[in-house]
Amino acid sequence: MEIGIGWCYCHVYRVKMSTPARKRLMRDFKRLMQDPPAGISGAPQDNNIMLWNAVIFGPDDTPWDGGTFKLTLQFTEDYPNKPPTVRFVSRMFHPNIYADGSICLDILQNQWSPIYDVAAILTSIQSLLCDPNPNSPANSEAARLFSENKREYNRKVREMVEQSWTAD
């Protein structure tokens, strides 16, 4: 009797794994492992292909240099037709990142395309760190400092970098 139950569980799991979104996420994960872009990493959380943990390393020779910033990516069965919900877990000070860690980035909203994979999403977010759009602020103080007082903005960014070393 238990053999039948075990088979049934495996069969259900296999069927669940074979949805188009899950197949695509497996492909994204394989590609990320085989050819990881510089300064990013990501993987599914535990055994849940629909929830990922990721890390973006601050780009060299920028105020973000040396930082390790943690994010989560939550996918739905609509992926890749709809973007994941991406959030920084690390505290951030950036014109396009809200206090709750959510990110104001066009490819995660109205400019989404199914051609974007996890690597492209993370690479775009890494680029956003150094190239913010202060005209569409999620954090008005960060946007104001970025535009009016770059030295103070960079000082606050360096604080976030230092916090990223010790934060859980």
Structure description:
- The model is unreliable at 1-15 (pLDDT under 50).
- The protein is α+β, with helices and mostly antiparallel strands and 168 residues long.
- α4 (140-148) packs across α5 (150-166).
- It has a single domain, classed as Roll (Ubiquitin Conjugating Enzyme), CATH 3.10.110.
- The chain is globular, with a radius of gyration of 18 Å.
- It has a four-stranded antiparallel sheet with strand order 1-2-3-4.
- A hairpin with a 2-residue loop joins β1 and β2.
- It has helices at residues 2-17, 20-34, 118-130, 140-148, 150-166, and strands at residues 40-45, 48-57, 68-74, 85-88.
- GO terms for molecular function: ATP binding; ubiquitin conjugating enzyme activity.
- InterPro entries: Ub_conjugating_enzyme (IPR050113), UBC (IPR000608), UBQ-conjugating_AS (IPR023313), UBQ-conjugating_enzyme/RWD (IPR016135).
Summarize the model shown.
With 168 residues, the protein is α+β, with helices and mostly antiparallel strands. The chain is built from five helices and four strands.
The assigned structural class equals alpha+beta
How would you name the CATH homologous superfamily?
A: Ubiquitin Conjugating Enzyme
CATH T-level fold name: Ubiquitin Conjugating Enzyme
Number of strands: 4
Strand order of the largest sheet: 1-2-3-4
What would the principal axes of the Cα set say about the shape?
globular
First-last Cα distance? 44 Å
The proportion of residues in beta strands is: 15-25%
Query: Strand-and-helix sequence, N→C?
Result: HHEEEEHHH
Query: What is the oligomeric state here?
Result: single chain
Question: What is the overall pLDDT average?
Answer: 90
Tally of distinct domains:
1
Helix percentage: 40-55%
Poorly predicted spans: 1-15
Provide the CATH architecture.
Roll
Radius of gyration: 18 Å
Largest sheet: 4 strands, antiparallel
Q: Quickly name the level 1 CATH class.
A: Alpha Beta
Q: Please count the helical segments.
A: 5
